Amino acid sequence: MSQEALAAGVQAAARRQGLRSGTDRMRVRKWERGVQPSEESQAYIAEALGWPADIVCANDWPNWLPLTADSVIPFGPHSSVPALREALRTAMERRTFFAISGATLSALAADWAAGPTSAAVQAHDGKPIGEDLVAFLEDTTQQLAAHATEQRQHTATLLDAHLSTVTEVLEHSRYTPALGLRLHTLAASLAQTVAWHRFDLGRHTHATQNWIAALHNAHAAGDEDMGAGLLGDLAYQAAWRRDHATAARILNHALTRAGNPAARCLLQLRLARTLAARGDRSERRAVLRALAAAEQHLSDAGTERPAWCAWVSEADLAVDSGQALLDLGDTGRAHQLITEGERLLPAARDKTRGVFFAYRAASYLDLKEPEPAAAAAQSLILARRIGAPRCVNLVNDLLPRFQPYARAEGVPELLQLAAA
Questions:
Q1: Contact 399, 418 (CB under 8 A)
Q2: For residue 311, what are the domain limits?
Q3: How many angstroms separate the Cα of 215 from the Cα of each of 17, 210, 366?
Q4: Is residue 30 part of a domain?
Q5: What pLDDT digit, counting tens, does each position of 323-332 carry?
Q6: Which of 50, 52, 164, 343 has the smallest number of Cβ neighbours within 10 A?
Q7: How many CB atoms lie within 10 A of CB 85?
Q8: How much is the pTM?
């Protein structure tokens, strides 16, 4: 849009309010050169550009302005900071009306798989930062991420602040290439953690943007395994939202460049789960191949694992294999695996335990055994205690299946607890 066209759009927006704006080409030129428009003018600018009024954050000009038509920053040598900025903008809750399409995410995954690894770009302007600050940010981030699941619900604001600080440092400071590499890696890790927090709260647009921002920064750091894992997270979200076609496409792109056995195990487990959930019995062999590959990769995985998948264990293999078999109709074996996985899970992973409880309840319902299935109450109690709405939703989705067994042992108590 030209300066003249934008000025005319602002004037028209004012007239629709019964007001008059003196905006002309010269004023637009001043805005382009750093003069901040008034709050009223910013509202007119949003309207002239076709955006709803609630996108405007007058004190954050020009950061609230959209950067792309589909809100997904393409890969490039300087894309890591804009991707972080896009995630931070989305956090203001003014852009959650966006639904990033599966086609857009699949295209991003294909670009990642096809393109060369991007080198971290050294900033040349701004005040220099040293190793002490970067080490402090790394150490405190690790401490925040290491809290027990029940306590992490209280650290979201601190993680957001850390991510904002790292973004500012990347954009406005001067640092060595070695420190730049560590900053991009830290930004990727922080954005991934924030994404999972938002995903657990059901804030899917914000979660998606943070995973995308993390992907750009892992790309800048040259960390292919982490990039593959972040695509795996986006695929997990797509599968959770029942877009299994998108999930499968993303996972297949991720597997082209993942090298660490633990990373490949996690990706193959997610691929098996999403292929099975599609309900196409003709894909049974593909599901079983993915499960066999995951088992082999876990066997090959040693102690040298990326931090983001260090937790992958026999418990995850058992439960995810069981859930895939459940979708294939092999309920007996599925129940055995899910129960075994729950038993193997470490005490520190309460959120995962809540998800496993819900999976186990579903397997009992498939066997028409409502009494042991009513143990889903454990998942509901646990999820409410640790602040995990995603686990609550898993149980809520099962509730209609309990209605035919309303008088079975434990079921009335579960339904009463869910209604409380």
A1: yes
A2: 259-332
A3: 43, 8, 38
A4: yes
A5: 899 888 888 8
A6: 50
A7: 18
A8: 0.78
